[in-house]
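Sample entry (216 residues):
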Amino acid sequence: MSAGLKLKDQVYEKILDEITEGKYQQNDIITERELIEKYGVSKSPVREALIELCKEDVLESRPRMGYQIRPISIKEISDIVELRIILETAALKKTFQHLEPEHIELLEKNLDEASRIHSEKNITKHWKCNISFHLLLCSFCGNSKIYSEVERALQFSFRGAIQYFSLSWNRSHSTEAQRHHKLILAMEERNLEKSLEILVEDIEDLKHELMAEINS
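Predicted structure, serialized as tokens:
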């Protein structure tokens, strides 16, 4: 466990990371004893972390059994896509009020680093790169509350992608960040309308891919 965070918060982050990255499947049961042994901590921080995850609808308490990984519904994914569009387009509009060449350079550097892992077609690495790009873009607006909510929404989207696409991703999904490249070009042109259009399309990809997966 790393220093700096309370033990409960460290346990919370480790459990959430493992759920997000698909190390547990939907409806899996995890127990306090299992986590105590796994992380080498006492019962109290584990229980506190599990209670917090239940409050956030990541887990559901199952008396005498443990804590069940709560599946993410299609409606929830649709709702989170809608929320991301509202938040991220608002952030981009705010960013355009003081858009600088340095912002473009940072996005290009981020995209260059991400391009190195696209050929691996790994859903976890793909989503971590995607989250990194969107959070960097959002950070330019200078609003910490928007950033925090976008970060939570992206993590939720990541969990949804793992749940629905972990088996089919390698054979059917493109991991090339083509829209990210197009977005950067539109921003270089100082074309807000085009930038917003590309950003919305990029965010909506998750919902479109989900519907295609269900109908396949």
